[in-house]
Design brief:
heterodimer; A: alpha+beta; 3 helices; 30% strand; disordered N terminus; B: 5 helices; 45% helix
Chain lengths: 187, 134
């Protein structure tokens, strides 16, 4: 695959573009020909290069393997099984704030797993000023509607959901910036 | 109690177009500009899962501001399949009903105005001034 020049690498972390899901399988190399354990990870990254980098970052933290002493056996992009079905995603996150490290459980409603994880990164940046490099996605799972804990997600679980668009302001044409009469905002 | 009731009735009449399952929408911005689609489900407050089998719109997620609501609505269950949406749309003949709406006519007018050309615009201006002079 051609490495995308758009996803720039800024210092330590990775720039969070529209994410893709990768399944990466790797193992430490053995000096003698004995069997070594094989590790599989689910990585959310903008491209393959960053995905491999994150794989080694996590594996190094969890096991005594380094990129120098290991090899990647398989890297495959995982595509969404049902891209037209709306799902509720529970995401378990670990992030570094300015004064310490915290765990979080966050919920998002989206059509794709990668969409939900991307939402999570954007949300963390907005609400907690957490940059992508300080966020670790621990677990992503589809959650049944009855098991959802967040009210912003639960409010969409109404089968007869319906709402108007009061006072709808759409992007106005620059030509009509001054008008004789107040424009109508009824949708 | 009386004032609340009257207020409730007033509110019911005030908003006639709702974002709901089955609402027919006109796509203003994006890949499928100019086509109509039906709301099949709601992702969140700003995103809709939309399908337009009779108008060439694949099942996809659109933002609310990409879309304009119409008065037309069909009766479909939430998240139903494209086949069901297609059968309901053809049963209600939504394509024909949409062409009769003012939104469709205005969109047609805009399209034909863009194709006028310089001479066409001159003719338009002349006809407008003669009409206004009468």
């Amino acid at each position: 695959a051609v490495v995308s020049t758009q996803s720039g690498h800024y210092g330590r972390g990775f720039k969070c573009a529209e994410l893709k899901e990768f399944q990466i399988v790797g193992k430490p190399l053995s000096k003698t020909n004995e069997k070594t354990p094989i590790y599989k990870m689910r990585i959310f990254a903008p491209d393959e290069v960053v995905a491999k980098s994150r794989f080694w970052y996590f594996l190094r933290q969890l096991k005594k393997v380094r990129k120098v002493n290991g090899e990647i056996l398989r890297l495959t992009e995982v595509s969404e099984k049902s891209p037209t079905k709306i799902k509720n995603f529970g995401i378990w996150v670990r992030y570094d704030s300015r004064s310490g490290s915290h765990n979080m459980y966050r919920e998002y409603r989206d059509v794709m797993t990668t969409g939900a994880v991307t939402q999570c990164y954007r949300d963390m940046a907005a609400r907690h000023r957490a940059r992508a490099h300080s966020i670790q996605i621990m677990k992503v799972a589809e959650v049944k509607a009855s098991d959802c804990r967040r009210s912003t997600v639960q409010q969409m679980h109404n089968s007869k959901i319906k709402f108007p668009l009061p006072h709808r302001i759409l992007k106005y044409n620059k030509k009509s910036i001054f008008v004789a009469e107040r424009p109508s905002t009824m949708q | 109690i009386q004032s609340n009731l009257s207020r409730a009735i007033f509110c019911k009449m005030l908003y006639q177009r709702f974002i709901e399952v089955g609402r027919v929408c006109y796509i203003r911005i994006g890949d499928h500009t100019g086509k109509i689609c039906t709301v099949v489900d709601l992702v969140d407050q700003k995103h809709l899962l939309v399908d337009g089998p009779t108008s060439g719109v694949p099942r996809c997620v659109l933002r609310l501001n990409q879309v304009s609501l119409t008065d037309l609505k069909i009766d479909i269950p939430r998240g139903c399949k494209s086949k069901k949406v297609r059968s309901e749309l053809t049963k209600e003949d939504i394509n024909a009903k949409f062409l009769a709406t003012s939104l469709s006519k205005k969109a047609e007018g805009k399209k034909s105005k863009a194709l006028l050309g310089d001479f066409g615009r001159f003719k338009l201006r002349v006809s407008k001034t003669t009409l206004n002079r009468k």
